[in-house]
Task: structure prediction
Amino acid sequence: AASEIANIGGLGDDIGGLPACGCAPEWMSEKAIAIGQYFVASGAPVLFGVGFPVTGSGMSDLLFKEYWDEYNACWAVEPDPIKQAEILVKWIDKAREKLGIKERPQRVLYDMAMRRELKF
Result:
């Protein structure tokens, strides 16, 4: 689905860097880690709310920082729900800015003559 969004939306041919992310505030099985890794490897950052099995290991820098350079995505762990929301919004805003879609265009109200001229 994400590749179709990138393709149809004219956002490129890669889903890495799309304004989308994954979040598991209270994951309950290891399957969530596998799904999250698929998201990260596909280019969507993932935030876990409660712990992560490799936090504190030598792999932490790779998963939480270095992945961003290669995949435009990485893992994050944050137990505070307010900070979780801030991180997710920051990721989405960063991607929107990079794609040049952060500022919304001004809305235009069409009159009947303008509607008739629309081409689909």
Notes: The first strand starts at residue 22 and ends at 24. Strands lie at 22-24, 46-48, 75-77. Helices lie at 2-8, 31-42, 60-71, 81-99, 112-116. The chain has five helices and three strands.
